[in-house]
Amino acid sequence: MNLPDLNKAKLRSHNIVKIKEYINDNNLNKLGLNKKYFIRTYGCQMNEHDSENIKALLENMSFRETETMEEADLILLNTCAIRENAHNKVFGYLGRIKHLKEEKPDVVTAICGCMAQEESVVKEIREKYNFVDLIFGTHNIDALPSMLNDVITNKTQEIEVYSIEGDITENIPVKRDSKYKAWINIQFGCDKFCTYCIVPYTRGKQRSRTKEYILEEVKELIKNGYKEVTLLGQNVNAYGKDIYDDYGMANLLEDVALTGIERVRFVTSHPWDFSDEMINVIAKYDNIMPYIHLPLQSGSNKILKLMGRRYTKEEYITLFNKLKKAMPNCSITTDIIVGFPNESEEDFNDTLDVVNECKFDSAFTFIFSPRIGTPAARMEDSISALEKEKRLQTLNELINKYSKEANLKYLEKQVPVLLENISEKDDTMLAGYTDTMKLVNVKAPIEKLGQIVNVKITDVKTWSMDGEIID
Ligand code: SAH
Ligand code: SF4
Ligand code: F3S
Fold first, then answer.
1. Looking at CB atoms within 10 Å, which of 123, 193, 214, 246 has the fewest?
2. Cα dihedral value 317, 274, 45, 174, nearest 10
3. Which of 228, 247, 118 is nearest to 179 (CA)?
4. Residue 126 contacts residue 134 (beta carbons within 8 Å)
5. Residues lining ligand 3, judged by CB closer than 6 Å?
6. pLDDT tens track for 299-341
7. Which atom of ligand 3 lies at the shortest distance from residue 234's CA?
8. Is 335 exposed, middle or buried (0-12, 13-18, 19+ CB in 10 A)?
9. How confident is the model at residue 167 (pLDDT cuts 50, 70, 90)?
10. How many whole angstroms separate alpha carbon 305 and alpha carbon 327?
């Protein structure tokens, strides 16, 4: 048993990160024969991508996927710890699993992801949800086959969570959710330690993958017909700083663009280390998409400082304007937190000022949620929950106004769209994203799935647009 330890998770070792290759244990290839697994994924793209690894590991053991929890022999929850409501959803779901377990005691239940890295969560699961058979963390997904084997053969509870990240394991099998677009990890962990954020504790220190492994993965995807890659990291701009002296995100973006893949995206960019070289490369290559997610968090310099974000409102706006100048049609989205401890009316108005100035294409907005162990959770806070709700609503109204305005500029225009799914709102339509990451529902035959087509926008809403293909 290895239990998570918050104090250890805060540490940053100077050990050189080693790379190992995943080795499949063929003895376990039949462990899941005639068995089904059900997986539910919470949180960010990194977790989505981890679930793609988990699915492949399970299918290599002959498990098959089911979308109905009641049918499953193995239930996995890949969890997120970023805010209280992410926690609540998982504990709510565990309540459902508890009932199922009473009827079908042989069902194996596993919890993984960022919540599994939290000391307080594992304690709560052991106290109140002790029927959970397996808890493993974000650093040992590759060990899933052997951990599962132990649970199934020994019928004991396994808890294997490491608070200090280990080596990087390359070539973990992957079953991608899409045939056209793929997530690629370029960096794990985060060393920024923004004072509100749990990620540096749940994902460990910042570790970049080597450019060779990344470029190999892109080339393999091109061979398999993929049109789009999204390079993933909590701080992609800092890519390479931990392993190279003279190769960073600008170089990587350029090399990925030069592979010829049709679309390159990347998330998330921290405003702090967004270099001019990066801007030049993004502007230079047509296959690097003109879309940047640039979290602001707050428009108040006082709050930004308390958050440990390392930039001012003025620096953010300067960067924003630089990006727009280099790429006038580029869309920029953001993340904003309201109700950080002691955010005054004036601080909140500063945030609204930045929104009014930048007129973001869209934004994810959140009420501050104290995370156990982070510095902000210990800050005194005199602002009421009601006031925070009101601020969120005011902010959302403004954000929505600008989203609609940004979308309206697309009316009657022609845009390239990668058609990737059947539309959720109308199954005679296909859905996809423009180069600038706008969701478009398109009247198109199913044969067009997976293609990048030219679309004329015929109608515009706050969160999506409609369009038709032009030949
Ligand atoms: N690495 C990214 C953010 C990843 S987390 C970055 O630095 O930009 C995604 C978003 O969740 C953050 O941008 C932030 O807006 C929000 N978030 C993180 N911790 C939070 C907390 N404790 N309460 C509320 N929102 C939070
Ligand atoms: Fe969290 Fe800050 Fe790291 Fe983003 S940069 S993951 S907000 S600590
Ligand atoms: Fe959540 Fe972990 Fe991602 S906390 S947002 S799943 S890195």
1. 246
2. 160
3. 228
4. no
5. 43-44, 46-47, 80-82, 113-114, 198-199, 202-203
6. 999 999 999 999 999 999 999 999 999 999 999 999 999 999 9
7. 7
8. middle
9. confident
10. 29
pLDDT digits (tens, 9 = 90+) for 173-227: 999 999 999 999 999 999 999 999 999 999 999 999 999 999 999 999 999 999 9
As a whole number of angstroms, the distance between CA 95 and CA 106 comes to 17
Cα(321) to ligand 2 centroid in Å equals: 23
Say if strands 465-469 and 452-460 run parallel, antiparallel, or are unpaired: antiparallel
The atom number, within ligand 2, closest to the CA of 308 reads 2
* Secondary structure (DSSP) of 259-325: TT-SEEEEE---GGG--HHHHHHHHH-TTB-SEEE---B-S-HHHHHHHT----HHHHHHHHHHHHH
Query: What is the band of 260 on the pLDDT scale with cuts at 50, 70, 90?
Result: very high
pTM for the model stands at 0.97
| Ligand 1 geometric centre to CA of 203 (Å) | 14
Give the tens place of pLDDT for each residue, 382-441. 999 999 999 999 999 999 999 999 999 999 999 999 999 999 888 899 999 999 999 999
Coil, helix or strand at residue 131: coil
One-letter-per-residue 3-state SS of 23-63: CCCHHHCCCCCCCEEEEEECCCHHHHHHHHHHHHHHHHCCC
Sheet with 74-79: strands ordered across: 64-65, 36-41, 74-79, 108-113, 134-136, 158-160
Spatial separation of the C-alpha atoms in residues 137 and 204, rounded to whole Å: 11
Spatial distance between the Cα atoms of 455 and 463, rounded to a whole number of angstroms: 17
